[in-house]
Amino acid sequence: MRHGKKFNHLGRKKGHREAMLSNMAASLLTHKRIFTTTAKAKALRVYVEPLITKSKDNTTHSRRVVFGYLQSKDAVNELFTTIAPKVADRPGGYTRILKTHNRLGDNADMCMMELVDFNEAMLEAKSSKVKAKSGSKRTRRGKKTDKPVEAAVATETASAEDATSVVEDAVVVEETPTSKDKSTEKAPKKEAKAEVADKKPAAKKKAPAKKAAPKKEDKK
Questions:
Q1: pLDDT at 47 over 90
Q2: Which CATH class is domain 14-118?
């Protein structure tokens, strides 16, 4: 049984499979993009990426090792002269697999396999997105920093205006009673005093009348 065995033989013997992967790798390095089945592309990725890593060391020994796999002088020359300098800063992941459609004959999953650093359209799109994001962040930050300052200034001016209006209202309220005639304030006081004076004599008159009656009875 094949429990835990993930190696895909691709329905071929070892010699046939290695020859096929060698030809596919040479085509990928020469043309930078090929169309194949998804299963073959995944097997090719494991085959060709170590060779690209090996090409970063441009020595005679590295060239001979890579040539042992590719068996193509043109592909080896293209790998060491064009691809290796462009991929020097990338730590792996040199290829990309993009699924396209299913093949009509056997309904196999088809895909496009390409070198990541040679798709100029996607690189330009990424650079434009990065620029747009960086610009939007700067403007948003600028707006965010400006808004609190404007809000603080607006609140300060509004509070100052409110304070001045309150002070003016207070001054007006304090001045209005003094500006009016003082007779209006004194009139209620005089009326109150007159009422108190009227009430006090009435109480005094009633008290002596009650006291006088018992005195006359004692004299008798």
A1: yes
A2: alpha beta
67 contacts: CB under 8 Å, gap ≥ 6: 73, 76
Domain ranges of the chain: 14-118, 120-179
Q: In the 8-state DSSP scheme, what is residue 112?
A: E
Would you call 76 exposed, middle or buried from its count of C-beta atoms within 10 A (0-12, 13-18, 19+)?
buried
- For residues 220 and 214, give the distance between their C-alpha atoms in angstroms, rounded to a whole number: 10
Instruction: Calculate mean pLDDT across residues 13-26.
Output: 97
Only one residue has tokens 């001016």, namely 157
pTM greater than 0.70 (yes/no): no
Longest pairwise C-alpha distance within the chain: 163
State how far the Cα of 32 lies from the Cα of 114, in Å rounded to an integer: 6
Q: pLDDT exceeding 90 applies to what percent of the chain?
A: 52
